[in-house]
Amino acid sequence: MKRLALFCLVLSLSLSVAGCTAHPENGQNLPLSSPENTDTTAVIPAQTSLPNPASAGETEDSLDADVCPLRLTLPTLRDLVARYGETLTWDDFAPYDKEELGSDPYCFRYPIDWDYCLEIAGDSLESEPAYIRIVSEYDGENYVDVRYADLDAFLDTSPQTSQFSYEEVLAAYPAEEPGVKSSGFQNTSSVALERIRDVRNRAENECTVEYDSVEISYDAQAAVWQVAFYTAGYAGGGQSVYLDGYGVTCLIVYGE
Question: Is the Cα dihedral 232, 233, 236, 237 positive or negative?
């Protein structure tokens, strides 16, 4: 009888433990094979910016371009040109983020950075593109077809955004100094600055001097643009306009 009672006690404890494993409180710690533990909904994390395969440590081929298009970069473009040259096709740029500029003929724009974009156009997606050209965002008429021109020579001779320190500018040009304007601006409302031409056009609203040259710089830490208008070959007489990331004028310095 003692043995029978002991057996019943052990059996009762075993069933109790098994019940806790199969149906725990609050549904936690379910076995991986349990139907209740199977999540049939694929959760895709929010993507706040286009991925850069070089910085993400992934190859372009390992990413699903249909789910999250890649942003075309200058190193990637150089690599494509080096590998395929005159035989580049529409398909070589299929993984990259683009916007349609027209469908007759077909024309697509691939953003690269503030300084450049790529444009591809042709009568049909099944035939050779009429052109595959890199375009300066400073001047839409400044471009070359990457299949036939020297890409690096074009980059070396095209204007590019440089860096500057807004903190140093404020230290060098206090608000009370002559030639420094810190209020009474034209640009007082926020706008979207999507291309470098948007930055230039916004700054031109404040420009009051004659000029034939423009240089644009950016302080990433302060998120401030510097747009310098001047006449090449002349000392002084220029004007620098400073805009925040929303196109609102922060400061104007004359005579630079």
Answer: negative
The 3-state secondary structure of the chain reads CHHHHHHHHHHHHHHHHHHHHHCCHHHCCCCCCCHHHCCCCCCCCCCCCCCCHHHHCCCHHHCCCCCCCECCCHHHHHHHHHHHHHHCCHHHHCCECCEEEEECCEEEEEECCCCEEEEEEECCCCCCCCEEEEEECCCCCCEEECCCCCHHHHHHHCCCCEECCHHHHHHHCCCCCCCEECCCCCCCCCCCCCCHHHHHHHHHCCCCCCCCEEEEEEECCCCEEEEEEECCCCCCCCEEEEEECCCCEEEEEECC
Q: For the chain, what is the radius of gyration of the CA atoms?
A: 30
Residue 104 Cα to chain centre, angstroms: 28
Predicted TM-score of the model (pTM): 0.66
Q: What is the pLDDT of residues 122-180, one digit of tens each?
A: 999 989 999 999 999 988 899 999 999 999 999 999 989 999 999 999 999 998 888 99
Render pLDDT for 8-56 as a digit per residue (tens, 0 to 9): 444 454 444 444 444 334 333 323 233 333 332 222 223 233 333 333 3
How many whole angstroms separate alpha carbon 91 and alpha carbon 107? 14
